[in-house]
Design goal:
By secondary structure, the chain is of the alpha/beta class. Helix content is 43%, strand content 14%.
Length: 286
């Protein structure tokens, strides 16, 4: 079993830090590859050059995964899956942010089952992301969806729950318990650290170390549970996803206060260190 750390292409927006000229799309792919990431996560959306990005990744031999935003039965999700199946190489995974607002668990479960059945018929691995302004915006509602759709696997972006539910510090044990229920089903993780006030904080600042350690502890718990239920040939995906300037902390002129690229590399090192320690533990106990 292996940990595959991907970098979000969306998170490359506005980089490099302190420069007026952004890296071009080919440069972004190259930087991700040169930094030792296992692949790139590409959002499939009309507002981004998704097909072009996939073509650059394929040409460079960089594995890729896709993040999609199904809105309901009329969104032609079947056609999207067939599009991915026709690509060579295709996505290592499809990450769903269900962009359908529902009032009942059964309504949401019906839509999720539809997407999962379509993907399963095409033999494409799918996870459902926990995310604000999506069907999974609320922690307790998401847990009910998970109970209603036991075959659903989770991409745990825990930052959205922390800021969305306004977790206090220190985080109460009741909230830890709810997060652990999400981690029990997580087959993928998005790497971002939040507080109750801010969805994305600078992980390299000492003042934020307690919050970083909180997330590292959650991720380690999720890694351990994933390893317990997975086989030797399985891959666990972790995507560093530190969003561009409008997502990050900026000064009055809109300039970011920290270097997101260096912070992405920091998160990569941190989770790889956790994984290496778990590998050593497994070797000792074997």
């Amino acid at each position: 079993m292996s940990l595959r750390v991907y970098q979000s292409l969306w998170a490359m927006g506005g980089l490099p830090y302190g420069s007026e000229a952004e890296w071009s799309l080919p440069e972004q792919i190259e930087r991700i590859d040169d930094a030792g990431f296992s692949g790139v996560d590409i959002a499939w959306t009309p507002i981004l050059p998704s097909r072009e990005a996939i073509a650059h990744a394929q040409a460079a031999g960089v594995p890729w995964g896709a993040t999609c935003f199904p809105k309901g039965p009329g969104d032609r999700f079947e056609e999207l899956i067939e599009t991915f199946r026709s690509m060579d190489p295709g996505p290592r995974y499809i990450n769903l942010q269900p962009d359908l607002k529902v009032f009942t668990v059964e309504e949401g479960a019906t839509e999720l089952r539809r997407c999962l059945e379509i993907a399963a018929a095409a033999a494409v691995p799918v996870v459902v992301e926990t995310h604000r302004d999506r069907m999974t915006t609320d922690l307790r509602f998401t847990l009910q969806l998970m109970d209603a759709v036991p075959e659903m696997r989770i991409n745990g972006d825990l930052s959205h729950f922390v800021v969305g539910q306004e977790f206090p510090w220190p985080v109460p044990e009741d909230d830890h318990t709810l997060i652990r229920r999400v981690l029990e089903r997580a087959d993928m993780f998005h790497g971002r650290v939040a507080t109750r006030e801010q969805v994305q904080i600078a992980v390299g600042w000492d003042v934020h170390r307690d919050w970083l350690d909180l997330f590292l502890g959650w991720w380690e718990h999720g890694f351990r549970r994933w390893r317990e239920r997975s086989g030797p040939a399985d891959d666990l995906f972790f995507v560093t996803e530190l969003g561009p300037p409008w997502y990050a902390i900026t000064g009055p002129d809109g300039t970011e206060l920290s270097d997101r690229w260096e912070e992405s590399l920091l998160l990569k090192r941190e989770v790889e260190s956790i994984w290496a320690r778990l590998d050593r533990e497994a070797q000792v106990s074997a």
